[in-house]
């Protein structure tokens, strides 16, 4: 727009300079006269190009003769005062005139002379006052007439009916008064009719709208129209109806037409039993997504079956005269984002299913007599919650309290709630907690409060549908996912340790932090079990040769369970071998059983376990090799993949480097990529938690357990190993990795899937902020951990400041902020407050960047 104005001002400067060159009574002359007289306050530059035709001026279009202007668009140019006579009204072929957003105060009396050509007139947002003359009927070819946002007064002229081709009429925001003109009812081609916010009164005649068969948008909200609505059933394509803020009476059941998408009947005097609407003849309101009946005199009970309105996103029934009734069945309203049942005479408890509406953004249940406990809504989208003036009791669920700092508004006042929390700045929020039972003295010193331990019942947190869909998808992943890569053969050029194949045990191997001993007498007698290739007779001796006797040079990483090596098995398959050093607690038989089970667990976001080897006290798990390294190295600009100093790439791995699309750190610096990683990892964890029986808790989710395969898909590694290793609670191993371990890990019996949810939250923080969980710089806060820092930022609604500057420009900031909110929920102190991995998958999918976001 700015550049448009600039271009236009250049044109205008040129134009005013060239005024002298315009021949009188050409269209160019008329336009320049018009601009000069309307006092366009634009800079006059010393340009000097008299050759240019007015047809090339910005905002002007000519017909093929290049003598007649057909379009003049002069919106927002600071034109002020009355339109002068003998200027634009003399443009004999003018079809489109847009003078919107100026300071025009009066029309010229010759304007109506344009009637033989004008099709579009936009005078919206000016300061034109006085009545609209009947001359408007001269505009016989008019299709679009926008006079909105002016000061027109008096009646809408009856001659408007002469505009038989009119498709759009916008008279909104004027001071038109009197009865609704019958003339309008004759504009049979109207598609959009906006008469809102005027002073129209009177009643409609019975069949007022019956001839407007093409009308799709009807708005006469904010007037003083009385009586009953006329029969609307003639409008076959009406989709938007807004009559809010009038004095209309009568039953609403005739109003609900099946083509409607938006119905706003709020703030009238509609009466009668709302439940009748159900039993009326017009039941198919399947396109309806916005229904506002608030502020009427409707009585009886609410719709008994709201499920009919399955597309609803916005439902407001507030402030009517309904009888006492229980909370309505909202179960089928899966798309609901706004629900207002304030002052609807509701009694009894809020059903627990209510907390499953994860799309809800605004909920108002205030001024009822609701009893029982507060639902623990966990929608991260929740922005406004008003439960004030009810009879709710018990504690405010912690789940909800945790959300409050990231919400826009909430109100729990005037209930019988016990209030207990120590993290909110209560002075700021005190008017949201008026008149609550202070078993915890909120007013005194919130920081001194000791919360009672939560005794929360098990909650059914997720939508049944979301659940089943998730299971379905997981199931598909489980069944159809085949081993994508393991058949890829590598041409191994040369391995340099053949001579050592006859060495006999016990073998002792030294790595940075670990010494491990494989108590193996005859290496060739210890088999390697390969799940996919049971007929290949590999033995421990092959592992020895594949890793140069577990040479430091082949070390990939020092994992928490023990060292990880890479190597080629004799068939040329590259693998990663994880030596599980603490293996002695579990019997060989149990370990083998568990490893066999893990081998059957396949998911596109898990690193496949392809085999194992029981070598004395050690269990060696053999994984598919992930050539693009792990997420930790990628995010924090460390060398990808191999961590050792030796350079393998030059001779041995030539083929690999040609064959795989090695990722650069730049590739990781888009929001889209980071989101893909987050969603992939969430899927893998949802699968382990909910798609595997018995359930698998990973216990060590962190960015260095997340690998990137050749297609750059994230794959979680190390799942299920704690059982193989036999972690017991006093083992130092159960403490988790610093920076990723949730607070409850000090109580080992708390090792539930929520433990993984917490660690996932940290990974998500890491993905969005690009910072390490500990030991990084966290600007502006005294916090020493990533989780402390980001949570503080999110609480203050400064989430965006924590976003990795490298990705901020690469996508929707809103989505990134939302991702931080999700991680915020995941990292709640109390496990019960964290969402499940399935819910997280759903939430992440809701903020999935689409291709064009990039
Ligand atoms: C404008 O045009 C006139 C004659 O056409 C010429 O004398 C004058 O120098 C020009 N001025 C500029 C600034 O080009
Ligand atoms: C209209 O005029 C007023 C002052 O009279 C000025 O402040 C305002 O910016 C003008 N509006 C437009 C759209 O030019
Ligand atoms: C009239 O102009 C205003 C302001 O430029 C614009 O918002 C509106 O859409 C226009 N009306 C029509 C019918 O195009
Ligand atoms: C009519 O004009 C008003 C004010 O300019 C605007 O807000 C409204 O959107 C317009 N109505 C339609 C249907 O375009
Ligand atoms: C309504 O729309 C249809 C199709 O767009 C058109 O043929 C018809 O002329 C329009 N007018 C009336 C009054 O039906
Ligand atoms: C209906 O009109 C009123 C007043 O003009 C407005 O506040 C309200 O938002 C409109 N409803 C819808 C659904 O657009
Ligand atoms: C609910 O509806 C009532 C009545 O229309 C209104 O006053 C209130 O602001 C609405 N609440 C919300 C949260 O929109
Ligand atoms: C609530 O319902 C009861 C009986 O059903 C009725 O007497 C009372 O007037 C209603 N209250 C309101 C505010 O409509
Ligand atoms: C709240 O519940 C108590 C006890 O059941 C009752 O005495 C009181 O009238 C109720 N208050 C409201 C506003 O319904
Ligand atoms: C308020 O709640 C407490 C328990 O939390 C209950 O003992 C008491 O009766 C309730 N009071 C009312 C008025 O409902
Ligand atoms: C909320 O706290 C402010 C001071 O911080 C006080 O002035 C106000 O009265 C309090 N409001 C309520 C409803 O307690
Ligand atoms: C909460 O509701 C009460 C009662 O309706 C009202 O007095 C108070 O101002 C509201 N607080 C906020 C923050 O809206």
UniProtKB/TrEMBL annotation:
Return the InterPro entries for the record.
Answer: Kinase-like_dom_sf, Leu-rich_rpt, Leu-rich_rpt_typical-subtyp, LRR_dom_sf, LRR_N_plant-typ, LRR_Rcpt-Like_S/T_Kinase, Prot_kinase_dom
Signal sequence span is 1-20
Q: Does the keyword Hydrolase apply?
A: no
GO MF, one example? ATP binding
> Which segments constitute the Protein kinase domain?
550-851
Per the record, its GO cellular-component terms are: membrane
Which cell locations does it reside in? Membrane
Its top-level enzyme class, in one word, is transferase
Q: Which Pfam families is this protein grouped with? A: LRR_1, LRR_8, LRRNT_2, Pkinase
Q: Per its record, how is this protein called by name?
A: Putative LRR receptor-like serine/threonine-protein kinase
In its UniProt entry, the species of origin is given as: Apostasia shenzhenica
Q: What is the lineage of its organism?
A: Eukaryota, Viridiplantae, Streptophyta, Embryophyta, Tracheophyta
